[in-house]
Amino acid sequence: MSLISLAPRNPMRTVVLSVLIFEIIVFGLAVPVMILVSHVPAGLAGGLAGGAAVLALVAAGLLRRTLGYAIGWLTQLVGVSLGVLTPGMFAVGGIFLAIWVLCFVLGKRLDAQSAPG
């Protein structure tokens, strides 16, 4: 079993998938905020927040593999990093990171409880 992924039957997989799906929505909604509130050029805002949304989408699609979790962890860092463009994303990205870590830690505990031995 990998250190960065959860067991296939772990119920927390659904929760981390939900986190990634909500991040896709939030990253998309961050584009107009970056443009209208933080005065970030539209191309830059769309490219970076859109790229973050695509990253979350790819992670969600690959969540059955360890690579999906690795991309999910990267998505969390990118989400927080969007705060450089609009400060509110530090808070929003931080909240998503906290939820991701909490779900992952609880999932690992479930994995440990259901491990044979």
What's the layout of helices and strands?
Blueprint: H1 12-36, H2 42-61, H3 66-81, H4 88-114
Helix pairs in contact: 1-2, 1-4, 2-3, 3-4
Describe the structure.
- This protein has 117 residues and is mainly α.
- The chain is 75% helix and 0% strand.
- The protein has helices spanning 12-36, 42-61, 66-81, 88-114.
- The chain starts with 11 loop residues before the first helix and ends with a helix.
Name the features:
mainly alpha, elongated, 0% strand
Following the backbone from N to C, one meets helices and strands in this order, namely HHHH
Radius of gyration, CA atoms, in whole angstroms:
15 Å
Characterize the main sheet. Answer: none
Please report the number of helical segments: 4
Number of beta-strand segments? 0
Number of domains: 1
Short account of what is shown:
This protein has 117 residues and is mostly helical. It has helices at 12-36, 42-61, 66-81, 88-114. The chain has one domain.
